[in-house]
Amino acid sequence: MSSSSATSTTPHVPEGFRLHTENNVHILMSENEAFLNPVQEFNRDLSVACIRTWSEELNKLKQERRAQVSKKRALKIKEGSAKKRQRVNEQVSVVVEEKPLQSEESQGGKTDTDLQPTTRPEETFDYNFTILEALSATGLRSIRYAKEIPLVKYVLANDLSPTAVAAMKRNVELNGLGVEEKTEEDGSARKGKTNLGKVRVNQGDACALMYGHRTERVDVVDLDPYGTAAPFIDAAVQAVKDEGLLCITCTDLSILATNNYPEKCFSNYGGLPMKAEYSHEAALRLVLHAASTSASRYGRYIEPLLSLSIDFYVRLFIRVNSSPLQVKKALTKTSSYFVCTSCQSFYEQPLGRVIEKTGAGDNVNTIYKTQPGPTIGSRCPECDSSLHIAGPMWSGPIHDTNFVSKVLQHIEANKDAYGTSARMQGMLTVAKEELPTPFYFTPTKVAGFFHCQTPSLEETTSALLHAGHQVSRSHASPGSLKTTGTCEDLMDVFRSWVKKHPIKNVSETSPALRLLAKEPRAEANFSKHPNSVTSSSKFKIVRYPETPANWGPGSRPVTGGGNKRKRKHDN
Ligand SMILES: C[S@@+](CC[C@H](N)C(=O)[O-])C[C@H]1O[C@@H](n2cnc3c(N)ncnc32)[C@H](O)[C@@H]1O
Ligand SMILES: [Zn+2]
Predict the structure, then answer these.
(1) What's the 34 CA to ligand 1 centre distance in angstroms?
(2) From edge to edge, which strands make up the β-sheet containing 346-350?
(3) Comparing C-alpha atoms, which of 449, 443, 439 is closest to residue 482?
(4) Ligand 1 atom closest to the CA of 222, numbered from 1
(5) Does domain 39-60+125-179+192-407 have CATH number 3.40.30.10?
(6) DSSP tag of 222
């Protein structure tokens, strides 16, 4: 069961409402009042697990730091009292040289240990943290955070729509999180006020609220809007504390992961999307780019902890910190890509580089330079087709393996706490092993470019491993592989494959012939490599589950201030 104190009894459902229950949180729904997408349970489960893991790690860190500070302070006091005693002794010995020094006991029974500050034992200190959910709708997510994450101090749940806010207040009460507030005038208790409890409801514009928290920052900001989160990112990166967590959902994959609206993608994320089977990873990198450039403006930088492409949306968990040095390095984690219009080979064009020069006295002078380019000619070296530009986008790692392992451990130990734990385990196991290098491919797709029979995942993996490259899966697509090899290395594997499995009936104009016009630099070895089975494929886990029922971002309710009809770009 959920780790929270759950409301176990089914509440009374007033006429005109229906009850939605997710993980012991009850939500009253009425027609067109506030938005709720049941398919997003996976998103909410994942968010509870990630925020909880992040908070427990931060708590440990704060406890360690506190213990160190107390230790140092105690040592200083000890040193101070020893010196003081020495000074007193010296004075005494000068005045009455023959008089022996007093023992500690005779100084009123005080010892060094007694002079230390009376600090609480470190294990009793817990860092209770705050969450700001900028776009809360029914409040389901905020209520789950408040009930299921032990270290939450309170959640600030906000929505622009008055009807959503009314629903939220009702749901907070329904789940036993409303508190009584004493009125200032007569001190009488009024039931139903929600601004002091564990979920504090606010009606207002998300950006206005977040900009209001620029000085008094919160620990976690969660953005789960309709469509794009882009208009909220600038305010969000400023509202979150150092070491804080920024959680972002974007459902506008028609913009982020296709080439249909490049102008819209550029205006929202500052980079261009790509048309390729790996465009969903590009979508993640474009959102990270938007977060990184926004953060940089305020002397802050991002560390992606987990970046997932799921069903019809992307969900990212990003740590935010301040450091002028790391801000400068953002340039070196940003690239554009040239993508072949036929065979989807990609060529990275990094934007910046760091040069470190050691000067006099071993002083290291760091200089930032632009990268030379172009890194590629105007045609694809593999098939001679034209190339399109994508990005700039984030080119650094998209997950923190250590963090993903911790989330996995938490889910494994709390399987019953989540409705979607099997799927979470599957996806995170793949994400944990994912190579940090950009993009993935599927043997099926590449075989399609060659018009050849498809080698199995094991054959493709083995050939790449035998050639000295690393291989992993990608969480973003079933049957996909990532490799440290170049696109030429991959194409050579397929050129070798075609020699063993010749193709027939290919038209003279087919790009397949152009791909085969190049000889492979070495003959690929398709025999089973001992490392070809990654641990994620050893487990019987749901790595790539079926598309859930009622799949999709859902549609907005038609009434209420912030709830307008769905726009063209919303999904
Ligand atoms: C997709 S729903 C949120 C779903 C919710 N996070 C969940 O997990 O169930 C988006 C919400 O954003 C609200 N909204 C839209 N624009 C807003 C703005 N500028 N400020 C605050 N809320 C806004 C809408 O009223 C809607 O309730
Ligand atoms: Zn090509």
Answers:
(1) 9
(2) 346-350, 334-340, 387-394
(3) 439
(4) 6
(5) no
(6) E
Phi and psi at 441, nearest 5°, equal: -145, 165
Cβ neighbours of 319 (radius 10 Å): 19
CA distance 157 to 441: 40
Q: What residues form DSSP beta bridges with 355?
A: 367
Q: Which atom of ligand 1 is nearest to the CA of 224?
A: 6
The domain over range 429-538 is classified in CATH as 3.30.56.70 = yes
350-371 pLDDT tens trace? 999 999 888 888 888 889 999 9
Q: Read off the pLDDT of residues 520-544 as tens digits, 9 standing for 90 and up.
A: 999 999 999 998 865 455 545 565 6
Q: Is 483 in the pocket of ligand 1 (CB under 6 A)?
A: no
The answer, yes or no, to whether any atom of ligand 1 lies below 6 A from the CB of 53, is no
Question: What global pTM score does this model have?
Answer: 0.87
Contacts with 438 (C-beta within 8 Å, 6 or more apart), sequence order: 281, 285, 335, 337, 346, 348, 395
Measured from the CA of 232, which atom of ligand 1 is nearest? Answer: 19
Query: So what's the ipTM on this one?
Result: 0.99
* pLDDT tens digits, one per residue of 327-349: 999 999 999 999 999 999 999 99
Specify the pLDDT at position 79: 81
Looking at the chain, the domain(s) classified CATH 3.30.56.70 span 429-538
